[in-house]
Amino acid sequence: MENSQGQIEAPRDRRHDALGDLRVLPDEIVCFILELLTPRDVARVACVSSVMYILCNEEPLWMSLCLNQVTGPLQFKGSWKTTALDIENLPDEYKEGSRMPLRFDGFNSLFLYRRLYRCHTTLDGFSRDSGNVERKKDLSLEAFCNEYDGKKPVLLSGLADTWPARHIWTTEHLLENYGDTAFRISQSRSRKISMKFKDYVSYINLQRDEDPLYIFDDKFGEVTPNLLKDYTVPHLFKEDYFDILDKDQRPPYRWLIIGPERSGASWHVDPALTSAWNTLLCGRKRWALYPPGKVPLGVTVHVNEEDGDVNIETPSSLQWWLDFYPLLADEDKPIECTQLPGETIYVPSGWWHCVLNLETTIAVTQNFVNSNNFEFVCLDMAPGYRHKGICRAGLLAFDEHDSEDAQQKAFYEKRSSSYSDFTRKQKRIKTDKSGDGPNSERTVNGASKNYNLWKEGFSYDIGFLSMFLDEERDHYNFPWSSGNSIGQRELREWLSKLWATKPGMRELIWKGACLALNVGKWSERLAEVCAFHNLPSSSDDERLPVGTGSNPVYLVDDFVIKFFVEEGLEASLYGLGTELEFYSLLCEDNSALKNHIPDVLASGILYLEHGSYINVPWDGKGVPDVIAKCNLLPKKCRTDSFTFGAWRKKLIEYRKTGLPINGSINSVGHSGIWPYIITRRCKGKIFAELRDILSWEDTTKLASFLGEQLRNLHLLPHPPLNFITSSEIEQELDFRDANYDMVSVSTKSNITAEWDIFIRTLTRKKKDVSVRLTNWGGPIPRRLIEKVDEYIPNDFTKLLHLVEDSSNAYKSCSWIHSDIMDDNIYMEPYGISSNSSGNDEDVGRMDNGFSNGCDDAVDGKSWHPSYILDFSDLSIGLPILDLIPIYLDVFRGDSCLLKRFLESYKLPLGRNISKCEPTQDGDKYGRLSYHAMCHCILHDDNVLGAVFSIWNELTTATSWEEVELKVWGVLNDYQGFP
C-alpha cells in the first residue's frame, strides 16, 4: 500500500479493532480459551472478525478440539479441522472441502509463528551428536549392579541382537500383520484414544503437528500376544518385584512405543520412582536426562498437599529442545545421547528424562522394581506430600530459608503439616526464565541458580528422603494419591505376598513396609495389645498386617486383632461401637447367624499418653475417659447404652453426606488413640483365593449360604431409636454446612424419625449425583450422566416404599453388612468343622498374606462356606443394599447365582407400590430393578464402575432403563416369599 508521497506503508495492525476488549489478552491465552469451546462454537467465533478467523483456524486448536470430542477409534482425515468436523457428523455442504482459506494482512503473532515453526521443523541436525551417556557392550550382571543399577544411566548394546523384533519390527511388517489392530495413543489429555495401526500409519505420513500423536500402549501384550514372543526381558533386568502380582493388580509396566519425527515424551520421572529400560528397534531417539532432584528448566512440579498427587507441567519435548535448551549454561545442560537401533538405555529410579524422536521410531520399554529401588518405590507410596516433592525437585520443594536450614540437622526433623480438610492446596516447584514476577510461587529464576540450589545438601538417599515423611499421616486414614501406580489394597497385598514368598529378602521388605505402611509403629501397638490380653507374640511370619481392608489387621496364633483407624477417630469409634452393639443383640436373639461370625474375645482402646501406651478395655457401652476428653459426643450419655451405636452412626453418616470426602477425616488431633477388637481366627481360605478353582456346585452352595445368612441378618431386630434423644435427632437433621442448601424433604407428617434420616440422606446424595458420576468418570457414559437427575425420583418416600398399610405402620429397616465381598467370605474344605474350638490342634495357620488356613493343596478339593467377616461397615438400612456388593463383586453379575441366593433368602425386598398407591410413575416404582439401580447410582462407592466393567455392552446404552433391566431385571421375577 502506498501513501500520497508514494511510500509503502505497513498494513495497519488488525488486532486492536478485531479483538475488542480481548486485545488485552496475549495470543496464547486467547487460544487457550478457544480450546475450552466446542467445535461448533469455535466455528461461530471465527465469524466475529478477521483475527478471530485466523486464531480459530489454526491446526493445533482443531487438534485439541478433535481429541476432546473423539469417543471411538480415531481416523485422521488429512487435517484436524476436517477430522473434527467429520466427528461432528456435519452434512457435506458445511465442510470446507475445496474452499480456500481466507488470507489477511496486518496481523503478526510470535506465539503462532513459533507453533508453526515447530510444526515444520526437521531434526536431521541431531544425528551427528552421540552425546555423553556411557555406552557398554556385553555388560555382565555383576558389573551392571556395581556401576549403574540405581546410580546412573547407560546405553547398552547387544541385549536385543537375538530378538526377532530386532529384525522384523518395522512399520511395513507391523502394518501387514497388525493393520486392523487398535493401539492406544498418547496425548496430553486424559481422554483415552486409540487408532487402528493402518490409520496411524496414514496419520504419520500426512501430519505436520508440533507434538504428534504417538502409540504408547501398555496393553499391547494382551491385544497382540504374538508381539510378546518377539522379545525377552534382558538378563540385566530380570528381577522385578511386581511380577508377584496378578495381571489385574499389577500397575502398567510395559509399553509399545511408535512415533514419528518431532514426537516424544516430555520431561517426567517414571511413576512410583521405578527404574526402566527402553530398547529401540527402528529409528533414532534423542535423550536428555537429569539426576533426581534437578528439575529441568521450564518444568513445574505440582504436589498436592492433601493426597500427595504429583503433576508435572512441562513444554512438549520438541518445544523444550528448541526454546529452553539454548538458554542453558554448559554446567546446566542435561546428560544427553542419541539412541540408535538395537541399543537399550537404562534409566535409574528418580531420574528426570525427556525423549525426542528424530525420525519414525519403534521401541519397547518396561518399568521394574528391584532390590536397588524397592525402598524408593515404597517411599513414594507413603501418604503425604513433602517427601514426594523432595524426591523430584530436591530442595526446590522448599522456600529459600528452608533450603538453608537443610544443611543443618534441624532441617531433617519432621514437621507438622499445614493441611486443610476442605481446601485442595498445591505446592509449585518451578524453574523458568526470569521475569515471571515477584508473586510466582516456589519460583527459582535462572538455570544456574536452579543448579546451585539442587547441589546444596540434596541426596537421593533413602535415609535422607525418609526424613521428610509426615508421621501424622498414616497409610490407613489419609487420602490415597490418584497418581499412585497401585492402590492401597494392592500395595498391602503386594508387600504381604513378597513377605511370604521371599523370606530371604525380609529385611529389605520390612524397611519398605515401614516406609509405605508405617508397620514399625503398628508392630509396637500390636505388641502392647498382645501383652495386655496375654496373647502370644507375633511370629516372624505374622509381622505384616494382612488382608485388603481399610484397617490394619493382624493374625497372631489363633487370634485376629483389628485396629480401627479408617477416616479418623470418630469414624473408628462408631465402627467398633456399632459392631459391638450388633454382637450384643446377636447373642441376645440367639440368631443362627452367630455360628458363622468369628467369636469376639476382647475389645478396647489403646492410646499414647506422655510417650507411654495405655490400654483401656471397652465393650462399647458408656464413654471411656480418654474419649470423653475428645469432645466427640453430646455431654449427656447413658453409661449403660451403646453410645457409639448404629443410630448415632447413621446420624453421622447423614451429616457427612454431600461433603468432600476429605472433610470426613478427623485424625489430626486424635491420632494417638486406636480402638481395637480381638476375634477368633477362622480356618480355611477367603473366597477371593478360591474363586477360579471352585466347582460350580460349590459356588452355588455359596450363593445359597449367603442367602440364608443375609436372611438371618435382616431378621435380626435393630436397636431402638430411643437410645438417642429427640433433641439430638433434630440437631443432626438440621445440620447445615456453609456451602449446603436446605434439602428438600417430604412433608408427610407421619414419617418416623428413622425414615426421616434416610430420606434426607438420599436427597442430599441426589443433589450432587451428576458431579460425583462425572468425577468418577471411567466407563460411565456421559450421555447417561446427563440423564441421571430425571431418572432418580424426587420423592424418596416412594423409593423407600413408605406407603401406609392398613395398620398405618411403615416397613421397618434392617441391619445391613454393606461390604460382603469376595475377601470377606471364608471357605473350608469338607471334613473340617466350622464350629471347632480355637484350641484344637487342627486350627489352620496362615501360609501367605491372605490364606488363613489349610496347608493342603487347593485344587481338587470341595469347599463349603463357613464365615462372614468384617462388620466394621455395619449399618442400618434397606436390605436391598446388601445385594449390590454380593451381586457385583461375589457373583460378578451372574444372574443364576443371584437367583439361587434369592431362593434361600425368602424375604421380601420391597413392596409393589404401584398396587398399593397408583401414581403416574407407578410402573417404575413397582420394579425392584428400578430400586436397585437407584441405590447403585446413589451409592457412596463407585459401583457403576463395576457395572459397566462387567457388562461392557452397556457403554453404548442410551438410557438408565436399559442399564437397569440388563443388570437387575432378574429381580422383577422375585416375589419375596416363594
Could you outline the blueprint of secondary structure elements for this entry?
Blueprint: H1 15-19, H2 27-35, H3 39-45, H4 50-56, H5 59-69, H6 80-87, H7 110-120, E1 135-137, H8 141-147, E2 154-157, H9 165-168, H10 171-178, E3 182-186, E4 193-196, H11 197-206, E5 214-217, H12 220-223, H13 225-228, E6 254-259, E7 264-268, E8 275-282, E9 285-290, E10 300-304, E11 310-313, H14 317-324, E12 335-339, E13 343-347, E14 352-357, E15 361-368, H15 374-381, H16 386-393, H17 400-405, E16 426-432, E17 443-445, H18 447-455, H19 462-465, H20 488-501, H21 506-517, H22 519-532, E18 553-556, E19 559-563, H23 568-589, E20 600-609, E21 612-617, H24 625-628, H25 646-656, E22 673-680, E23 685-686, H26 687-690, H27 696-715, H28 726-733, H29 753-767, H30 769-776, H31 782-785, H32 788-791, H33 796-799, E24 814-816, E25 825-829, E26 863-868, E27 875-877, H34 880-890, H35 895-905, H36 913-916, H37 922-925, H38 928-937, H39 943-950, H40 960-968
Parallel strand pairs: 1-2, 16-17
Antiparallel strand pairs: 2-13, 3-4, 3-5, 5-6, 6-15, 7-14, 8-13, 8-15, 9-12, 9-14, 10-11, 10-16, 18-19, 19-22, 20-21, 20-22, 23-25, 24-27, 25-26
Helix pairs in contact: 5-6, 15-21, 20-21, 25-29, 27-35, 34-38, 34-39, 38-40
Main location: nucleus
GO molecular function: metal ion binding; oxidoreductase activity
Subcellular location: Nucleus
